[in-house]
Design a protein that fits this description.
The protein has 96 residues and is mostly helical. The protein is built from 3 helices and 2 strands. The longest helix is centred in the middle third of the chain and has 10 residues, at 31-40. The radius of gyration is 15 Å and the shape is globular. The two termini are 27 Å apart.
């Protein structure tokens, strides 16, 4: 779903174990990655996870793109990080 199409009723609320507490749409499997970030970085207030083509290209090289490449980066005061690329993980599945 595109960010432009998101409405408040599309969001869900989960606890730190991934149990959905509220919301009309089911949580995605990617919530587990977001929860790990919250656990590892207690000062984190939000996790923004997206896949813009240019950002993905930079991520593959292990570099954070300059703010002029990704418009939403200019409007944020947050610190941006590039994490190592991995295959999606599933809870209780063998490590990849």
């Amino acid at each position: 779903m595109s960010k432009a199409d998101l409405r408040p009723q599309d969001l869900c609320l989960v606890d730190l174990e991934g149990k959905q507490l509220a919301g009309g749409r089911p949580r995605t499997s990617e919530i587990l990655m977001h929860l790990e970030i919250y656990k590892e970085v207690p000062e984190a207030k939000a996790v923004v996870h997206c896949h813009p083509a240019h950002a993905t290209a930079y991520a593959i090289t292990g570099r954070v793109p300059p703010t002029c490449v990704i418009p939403s980066m200019k409007s944020s005061s947050a610190r941006w990080r590039c994490l190592p690329t991995k295959l999606p993980a599933r809870r209780n599945s063998p490590a990849r």
